[in-house]
Specification:
- It is a single chain.
- With about 190 residues, the protein is mainly alpha-helical.
- It has 2 domains: about 10-145, Winged helix-like DNA-binding domain superfamily/Winged helix DNA-binding domain (Arc Repressor Mutant, subunit A, Orthogonal Bundle), CATH 1.10.10; about 155-185, no CATH class.
- The chain is about 60% helix and about 10% strand.
- The strands form 2 sheets. It has a 3-stranded antiparallel β-sheet.
- Helix 1 (about 10-30) packs across helix 5 (about 100-120).
- It is extended and about 75 Å long.
- One of its GO terms (biological process) is response to stress.
- This is Homoprotocatechuate degradation regulator HpaR.
Length: about 190
């Protein structure tokens, strides 16, 4: 079967690469009873000292609806503490609690050693190239890449009952999947 898209599925490759990479670190996190989401937060707090929840969401790629629960559980087990900002009581800063700091001290040498093993397996140049490529891709301004022009909404061709004339009918986005389903069922 001929592929309809000429390019490799880059997002899927990123997901597979992430999964493969995490398979080397997951046993360490599991040993200490830390989830991947918790580790991403702990690592950032170790790097930056303290951050607001919205900053954590952006930097960890965790949705704010999930972040609230993750932070609450981390606070319950004394990994982090949250403090209101004096000048603006609506805002909160999150930082490592002493036991969270101790956990980082215990995990950090194991994480570094695992990175060293990965670097030995693939070589320093490959690791440096990967880091540079990812950092460059992330840092690139969105305006650098042109975007495909799209019509205001999906369009479906509709034929008359006699099957003679066809006309394009723009659909609201929510109607698009039901129109595709109707069209598929008629075939």
């Amino acid at each position: 079967m001929k592929h309809r898209i000429a390019y490799s599925n880059l997002p899927q490759l990123f997901l597979k690469a992430r999964e493969r990479l995490m398979s080397h670190f997951r046993p360490i996190l599991n040993h200490f009873g830390v989830t991947e989401q918790q580790w991403r937060i702990l690592r950032l707090l170790d790097e930056y000292g303290q951050l607001e929840p919205r900053e954590l969401c952006e930097m960890t790629q965790i949705l704010s609806s999930s972040m609230a629960g993750v932070l609450a559980r981390m606070e319950e087990v004394d990994l982090i503490c949250r403090n209101r900002i004096v000048d603006d009581r609506r805002r909160v800063l999150v930082q490592l609690a002493p036991s969270g700091d101790q956990l980082i001290r215990e995990i950090a040498p194991l994480i570094d050693l695992q990175y060293k093993f990965i670097e030995q397996a693939f070589g320093k140049p490959v690791m440096a190239d990967l880091l540079n490529a990812f950092e460059g891709f992330i840092a690139a301004e969105p305006e650098v890449v042109l975007h495909v022009p799209l019509s205001p909404g999906p369009v479906v061709l509709q034929t008359s009952k006699a099957g003679k004339a066809a006309k394009a009918i723009p659909l609201a986005r929510s109607d698009a999947s039901s129109a595709r389903n109707r069209k598929a069922s008629k075939q």
